[in-house]
Every structure is written in C-alpha cells, then in structure tokens.
Amino acid sequence: MILVTGATGLNGSELVRRLSAKGIPSRALVRNPAKAQPLESLPNVEVVEGDMARPDSLTDALRGVERAMLISSSDQTMVEVQSSFIDAARRAGVQHIVKLSGIIPELDSPFRFARMHAEIEKRPEASGVAYTHLRAGEFMPSYFRQVPSIVARGVMALPMADARIASVDIGDIAEVAIAVLTTSGHEGKTYPLTGPESLTMADVAAKLSAAIGKPVRYVDVPPEDARQARIAAGMPPYLAEGLDELFAERRKGKESTVWPTIQDVFGWAPTSFDEFARRNAAIFRGELPSPR
Ligand SMILES: NC(=O)c1ccc[n+]([C@@H]2O[C@H](COP(=O)([O-])OP(=O)(O)OC[C@H]3O[C@@H](n4cnc5c(N)ncnc54)[C@H](OP(=O)(O)O)[C@@H]3O)[C@@H](O)[C@H]2O)c1
To answer: What share of the chain is helix, strand, coil (3-state, %, to 5)?
Structure first.
C-alpha cells in the first residue's frame, strides 16, 4: 500500500488524483475530515484520519504501508511534523519514504525552510529506511497568488529584480512521485526537479499575457514593501519573513538552474511555463477560482 501525506494540499491531492486515475490503490492521510470530501469520491483511494505530529494517531494509517509520500506545510512545525512521521513510519515497517523537498536544502541556508528540508532529509538517511528526495523548484501554481493583481491592474508585482527562476509543474512532480513509488531503482536517490527553462519575471509576465490575451506587466517591488504587503494581506509574520529570505536567495539567482532530471531519468519533457499558462488561462483571467 502507498500512503500519501499532505493529501489535502497542493501536491498531495494532485498525486492522489493521478494515482486514482491510473488505478493504483493508495491511502490518503488527512487530519481534518472536513477537507477529505474531494478525496473520498475517488476510486482506489482510502481516506484515513491522522496527525503526522502525533504518532499514536497514525496506527491505522500506517498499517500495511510499504511506501509513503512525505509532504507537510511550510511552517514552524515542519521539522517536528515530518520527523515524527518518519519515526512512526520506520517503526511501522514502511520500507521507502519519498520526501517532497526544496530545490536547494542547506543546513546553513539563509532561508529557513531550506535549512529545515536539509535537516529532515537527513532523518530517513540516518534511520535505515530507504528514501528518495524530490527536490522541487518553485511550483508553477505559486503564480496563482498574482491573480487578483493581474485581474485588477494587469500587474504582476514581485521582489525578483531581473533574476531568473526555473519553476516546475506540480503534475510533473506527481508523475515523478508515482514512478518512484511504484518502481524500483530510486532508493537512495536525490532528484532535483525543475521545468525546462529559466525565466525572468518579465518572461513570465509575457507568457501570461500571451495565454490570457491581455497585457500583464512585471513590476519589481522593494523587498520590504513586498513583506509589508504579505503581512497586510493576512499572511502570518513567520511565513512572510520566510518568503523574504526566499526571495533574497532567488534574487541572487539561487533557483535559476535548469535540471534535466525529468527528461533524463524519467523520460518525458517537463511542462513548459507556456503550457502551464495556457492550461490555466481561465484562472489567470479570474474566470475560475484559484486553487492556491
Ligand atoms: N511553494 C513552493 O514553490 C515549494 C517548492 C519546493 C518545495 N516546497 C515544499 O513543499 C511542501 C508543501 O507542499 P504543498 O504546497 O503541496 O503543501 P500544502 O498545499 O501547503 O499542504 C500541506 C499539506 O500538509 C498537511 N499537513 C500539515 N501538517 C500536518 C500534520 N501534522 N498531519 C497531517 N497532515 C498535515 C496539510 O493538511 P491540512 O489541509 O489539514 O492543513 C496539507 O494537506 C513544503 O514542505 C514546502 O517547503 C514548496
């Protein structure tokens, strides 16, 4: 049995939907039953309640599980939550943990979540459970946060200066996860995952313009203004400060490398930003609700 954690979130729900569509049985871990409804109607999916931070709540979820996908939220508790899950999984006899990580986890990174991912990656490595680390670049749906400003003013405002970034489609991440969770040979491997190109924000704005058929202009905002805007929009200060650190890294070009892993290891061409923008044009026009 495959267990998917973070199953109500962006990547976990995409993975569960794709496993279901392929007829591959999976178990979806949810901590809030109110959010489980969209998963419950999917064929081949068993929804189980549990909290990754509370090992005693995971007994049913982990019974008979051979491989697990490890995802949780970017917040203060990420190390504790994911470490607690890894320990519980190891005790329950899980043989392989596939972790959704960041693109550059470093113990001494100025970006708090990169430090946390580096620390968490060491856990299964040290525990003897087989692991695979999926180090994902910026998720393309991150640009859904720009929808209100694109719809209202035709503007995409980010503190990115003229730096490039290689973002990745979450459908590609899910397909890689399925390959790793259902075939052998990926144990002990670390896979950096990006899309096929490294883009400036002016490039991204031009691609969004082409997809929605109306001008979108990139405006570079000072980092401090961006942080204040996030807090004013209701983002918890811890996360707002984390994003501040992240954008400082990105402005230095830290996430600009294009990695060929998806093509070279898994054998398909990763989704381009043009394709992502075309597929989601109705969301960027404000005609459909944003899932993010
Ligand atoms: N944003 C990016 O561009 C980017 C790039 C690379 C890597 N990452 C990493 O990707 C991860 C987030 O992935 P995502 O965006 O797909 O997730 P997400 O949409 O933020 O959802 C997080 C999921 O984890 C669940 N969760 C959190 N704590 C839990 C707990 N104690 N027990 C059970 N479930 C718990 C949440 O459940 P609820 O629905 O109940 O809250 C939710 O299903 C983070 O580790 C982040 O650092 C992000």
So the answer is: 45, 15, 35
